[in-house]
Write a structure and sequence with these properties.
CATH architecture: Alpha-Beta Barrel
Distance between the termini: 50 Å
Number of domains: 1
Order of helices and strands: HEHEHHHEHEHEHEHHEHEHHHH
Oligomer: single chain
Shape: globular
Helix content: 40-55%
Number of strands: 8
CATH superfamily: Aldolase class I
Number of helices: 15
Radius of gyration: 19 Å
CATH class: Alpha Beta
Largest sheet: 8 strands, parallel, barrel
Strand order of the largest sheet: 1-2-3-4-5-6-7-8
Length: 318
């Protein structure tokens, strides 16, 4: 078996792309999108029908002028999600507007709007994960949504503190960003390379995995944002890994032997200590972690920037 086939026996593989052909090629169970991926995909003429449908939906008399753009983006996100669900047998993650990352009830409203669209198309809500930035407000919004039967994927997660808060809130899945953690440490240390066995992003996800499994949290862990296949190999055994088409191709072309690096048995023997969090502790510990604070803020800004690009792109069609 090639490395990708071996990995699929240890971990659920998720496609980190908005391109349907890549999903069909690599047959992941789930798929995840974000404004950046949708914006890239929207440039491709083969997806024009999805954009046109969203624009026509937003032009309907149902929406006031100041609501039309948001309606268009919501519908476009769902349109991509619906196409993805025709390909993958599992779930698709659909993202809330990153500009709502510090608004609990606006996030809830947006999430419910997305879910209504999916359910109107006959999609079971178990196949949808609503993707929300792992701010304190985002985590609290997710907690409310989960209690109402809407499953969430907490993204832009860079620290064990964020992960613990998500687990305590009962969210379905978290997406710790391995590669972006590595980027920060390489920049801070002024180095071009850190071995995968010493990779701070790999170490972070390993610590989260051990904590969750040792204390029997049900929240799933999906490693994300990889920079190289070695990071992926070091996290074999994680619940899920979301991987770009380029790295999926590298794994498919490799015959390296892959063994489970993460396991419940090893987690049970880890030195993880239970931590209790409230809002004050969460904000203070995030403040004390310059990497997590910086990368969370940067991620929200970048998702917001790409969302504005997408709005400008579709705005020309109104």
């Amino acid at each position: 078996m090639n490395a990708l086939e071996q990995l699929k026996k240890l971990t659920t593989v998720v496609a980190d792309t908005g391109d349907f052909q890549s999903m069909e090629k690599y047959t992941p169970r789930d798929a995840t999108t974000n404004p950046s991926l949708i914006y890239q995909a929207a440039q491709n003429p083969k997806y024009k029908h999805l954009i046109d449908d969203a624009v026509n939906y937003a032009k309907s008399s149902e929406f006031e002028d100041d609501r039309r753009m948001r309606a268009c983006i919501e519908k476009l996100s769902v349109n991509f999600g619906l196409e993805i669900l025709k390909i993958v047998p599992g779930r698709v993650s659909t993202e809330v507007d990153a500009r709502l990352s510090f608004r609990i009830y606006d996030t809830i409203w947006y999430a419910k709007s997305l879910m209504r669209m999916y359910e109107k198309e006959g999609v079971d809500r178990e196949r949808i994960l609503i993707k929300i930035a792992a701010t304190w407000e985002g985590i609290k919004a997710a907690e409310i949504l989960e209690k109402e039967g809407i499953k969430t994927n907490l993204t832009l997660l860079f620290s064990k503190i964020q992960a613990i808060a998500c687990a305590e809130a009962g969210v379905r899945l978290i997406s710790p960003f391995v590669g972006r953690i590595l980027d920060w440490h390489k920049m801070t240390k002024g180095v071009d390379h850190i071995p995968a066995t010493e990779d701070p992003g790999v170490i972070s996800v390993t610590e989260i995995y051990n904590y969750y499994k040792k204390f029997d949290y049900q929240t799933e862990i999906m490693g994300a944002s990889f920079r190289n296949k070695e990071e992926i190999i070091e996290l074999a055994g994680c619940d899920l890994l979301t991987i770009s088409p380029a790295l999926l191709q590298e794994l498919e072309n490799s015959n390296i032997k892959i063994n489970a690096k993460l396991s419940k048995e090893r987690a049970a023997k880890s030195d993880a200590v239970k931590i209790s969090l409230d809002e004050m502790n969460f904000r203070w510990l995030m403040n004390e972690d310059p990497m997590a604070s910086m990368k969370l803020s940067e991620g929200i800004r970048n998702f917001s920037k790409d969302l504005r690009k997408l709005e400008l792109f579709v705005g020309r069609l109104f």
